[in-house]
Amino acid sequence: MQEEQEKLAETRHLLQSEQGLHGQLTAKQEAHRANLASRDVLICELASQQGIRGFEGTPFEQRQVNQFISMLAELQQKQQDSVEHLQVGPIDRAS
Q1: Angle, in degrees to the nearest 10, between helices 2-50 and 62-94
Q2: What is the number of structural domains in the chain?
Q3: Which residues span the domain enclosing 63?
């Protein structure tokens, strides 16, 4: 009888551990979903601000996110090149 009670107590403890783990995983899943939703909103806002078309609707697939990041990197490089051209331009004219 005592052996069965010990086994029952052990099983209850295991159940509590598993329920705690399930709760943690559920919370992480919800946080992940919220992060994805926030990411999608930010992509829409940035696309609108920068005049990048094709990113009006959500949710985005990973392929679309990667494409958007590439487009932003290209835009950033173009803007950096423009800034460098403006910085170098007046120096050349003064010579």
Answers
A1: 40
A2: 1
A3: 2-94
